[in-house]
Write a structure and sequence with these properties.
Largest sheet: none
Radius of gyration: 24 Å
Distance between the termini: 104 Å
Order of helices and strands: HHHHHHHHHHHH
Number of helices: 12
Number of strands: 0
Oligomer: single chain
Strand content: under 5%
Number of domains: 1
Structural class: mainly alpha
């Protein structure tokens, strides 16, 4: 029993250590500081003999773990996304990072409140960024469905921490994902009408009218 508890503590600390920063630390970083973070991760990736995608993965996790009210993801994530696309690692990176966040929020007793909120914000930003790309049975659809199906919740302490620091009510990322999928399914059932194929002919100009006159 003691050995089991010791292993659980070690595993939890390792997962927590996987976060470069918690959400409250990231919130204090401005555009220049976040750009510097991205630059450092790109340099680490170029200098690595193997595992070049690891620093890129860390950078993506940090960017998506920061509250995105100022659209920081759109402003600074492109260089990291480019490397992932070049290495054909985009889906693997997001799949692994989402799994890490879901595992943490499924075992909340092992994680501090700041860590829980950080992972929740990460999932929320993934949902928001992938929502416009959803197609039936696409990678984006399956990833959001994975979030929806896990039914993760933050502890009361984590919810209070988010409300106190960000002045935001905490909603389960799984509930957000379910709403996105429900809206998508409704659009499939009730697609918008196609645009009209008949176009109004332009009115004849005076010069055309005079040319056609006998």
């Amino acid at each position: 029993m003691i050995r089991f508890l010791f292993v659980t503590i070690i595993l939890a600390s390792q997962v927590q250590a996987g976060l470069l920063y918690t959400y409250n630390q990231l919130t204090l970083k401005d555009l220049d500081q976040m750009n510097a973070l991205v630059k450092n991760k790109l340099q680490e990736s170029k200098a690595a003999y193997s595992g070049k995608i690891v620093p890129i993965k860390e950078g993506i996790q940090a960017i998506f773990s920061r509250p995105n009210a100022d659209d920081m993801i759109e402003k600074i994530s492109a260089p990291l996304r480019t490397v992932m696309e070049q290495e054909d690692e985009t889906e693997k990176v997001f799949d692994e990072l989402v799994a890490e966040a879901l595992n943490a929020l499924t075992n909340t007793k092992n994680f501090k409140k700041e860590v829980q909120v950080t992972y929740a914000i990460f999932l929320e930003n993934v949902i928001s960024e992938f929502k416009p790309l959803i197609k039936k049975d696409s990678f984006e659809y399956k990833l959001i469905k994975k979030i929806a199906d896990r039914n993760v919740e933050l502890t009361k302490d984590a919810q209070k921490d988010r409300t106190l620091r960000l002045m935001q009510e905490s909603v389960s990322p799984s509930e957000i994902a379910k709403k996105v999928l429900t809206d998508f399914e409704e659009k499939l059932k009730n697609p918008p009408p196609p645009p009209s194929s008949t176009e109004e002919k332009p009115a004849a100009t005076e010069s055309n009218a005079s040319e056609s006159a006998p």
